[in-house]
Amino acid sequence: MLELDNVVRRFGDRCVVDHVSFRVDEGRMTGFVGGNGAGKTTTMRMIMGVLALSGGEIRWNGTPVTAADRRGFGYMPEERGLYPKQTVLGQLVYLGRLRGLTARAAERSASDLIDRLSLTEKRTERLESLSLGNQQRVQIAAALIGEPHLLVLDEPFSGLDPHAVDSMAELLREHTDRGVPVLFSSHQLELVERLCDDLVIQAAGRTLARGTADSLRRRGRVRHRLVTGGPTDWVRGVKGVDVITSENGTALLELATDDVADRLLAEALRRGPVREFAEIVPSVADVFREMTAA
Ligand SMILES: Nc1ncnc2c1ncn2[C@@H]1O[C@H](COP(=O)(O)OP(=O)(O)OP(=O)(O)O)[C@@H](O)[C@H]1O
C-alpha cells in the first residue's frame, strides 16, 4: 500500500502541493484528477523520488519509501523519455533487464506486452519512426515490464485510440487483480469513472475529495427529470422546487426534500400524462465540475 501523509512541495515561496494525504490500496485502481496545474505531476514525481518533498512523508507498506522500493515501481512520466534510436523490442528488453529480469524473461515479457498492445509489426522499428500513439503504447509497456509492485502513471491514456484504451485498461485491471496498487492521472473523467475503484480530486495543490466513485457521486446534487405530455411551466409554482430548465415538456429540477417529489408527481399526474419522472444521480464529471467551480 502506498500512503501519502501531509506531503508538501514548494517551489520558492509557491506551495504547489499543499499537505496532500491519500492512499493507494492493494488491488485498487486509483484515479488522480484535477485541473491543469493542480499538482498531480509534482505529486507523482515525489512518489517516484524524482523530486524531493518539502514536507510530509510517503510510505510504502507502512515504512518510508526507499530507493530500493522505487526500483520495483513502474512509472510512466509526463516527459515520456525513451530512447528514440532504439527498437521497440530492444528498449523494452533493456528496461526489463534493469528491473532485474533475466535476458530470457525480459524478452518473453517484452514480446508479450508488444503483442498485447498491438505493436507486433513494429517490434523491430525504432521508436522515433512510430506514430505518437504507438510511442505512447511503448511507454505503457515500459512502465509495465518487470512485474512492478506499484504503478504510477501520468496521463497514460492521453493520445490513445479507443482500442488502445481498452487494451491498456485490461492490462491495468490484470495488475490490480494480482494485488498491485495503481495510481494514474487523467483528464478523461468518464474513463476515470468507468475504470477506477477510488478517486482523488485535486485542485490548486490541495485534495478536495477522495473516495470511491459512488461516495463522490453521492456528494453531488441529485436532480430530477420530469417529462410530461404538455407544458411543464407550472412546476415553477411548486414549493420546494428549483427549476434548472423547463422546455418542450421536459423539466430538470432540484427538489428541496424527498416529500416534494411525491407532491410534484401527484400534481403532474393530475394535469395529464407523465412520460418520465426520474432521479438523476450526478456523474463523477458533474461532481468534479461542481467542486472545482467553487
Ligand atoms: N520545477 C518547477 N518549478 C517551478 N514551478 C513548478 C515546477 N514544476 C511544476 N511547477 C508548478 O507547479 C504547479 C503544479 O504543476 P503540475 O505539473 O504538478 O500540475 P498537474 O496537476 O500535473 O497539471 P496538468 O494537468 O496541467 O499536467 C504548476 O503551477 C507548475 O507551474
Automatic annotation (TrEMBL):
Domain ABC transporter intervals: 2-229
**SMART domains tied to this protein:** AAA
Which GO MF terms does the UniProt record name?
ATP binding; ATP hydrolysis activity
Q: Which residues form the signal peptide?
A: none
Q: Which Pfam families match?
A: ABC_tran, DrrA1-3_C
Presence of the UniProt keyword Signal in the record: no
SUPFAM superfamilies, per the entry: P-loop containing nucleoside triphosphate hydrolases (SSF52540)
Alphabetically sorted, this entry's keywords are: ATP-binding, Nucleotide-binding, Transport
List the PANTHER family hit by this protein, alphabetically. Answer: ABC TRANSPORTER (PTHR43335:SF3), ABC TRANSPORTER, ATP-BINDING PROTEIN (PTHR43335)
The name on file for this protein is ABC transporter ATP-binding protein
Question: Which organism does this sequence originate in?
Answer: Streptomyces aurantiogriseus
